[in-house]
Amino acid sequence: MSESRRREWLVVPDTNFLLVPGQFGVDIIGELHRILDVKFRVLVPNVVLDELNVIERKSRGRDLMAVRMAKKLAERFETVEIGRFGERPIDDQIFDFAVKNERVIVCTNDKGLKKRLRESGVPVVYLRSKKILELEGMLE
Description:
This protein is α/β, with parallel strands linked by helices. The chain contains seven helices and six strands, in the order H-E-H-H-E-H-H-E-H-E-H-E-E.
């Protein structure tokens, strides 16, 4: 097995991606294992956790349930410090982290962020047809 095969990828979800299980009932972890044929580790950006807390305070009903599910899911993974909440847009902070670090896969449904990442050669996982995840970009 080659050295690159053993090195793991860092999977970085944005806020909306963590809300997918609560909003659409998609098992994002199972789906990540299905589509990523590489060793990977999920790292949740600190600013994403901060944003979930802000959304939670404003949410009611189904939205509140989705946020709580997202927070519960995020607890299963490591947190990575990528910046300070409110200082710059979270998408920009995630983009900078992905571009500055090797072997990062970003999970987002944000079209603008997805386009910027793909133009910079960063693989992106996104929700397709509200039921499955799809990978865009090459993993070597």
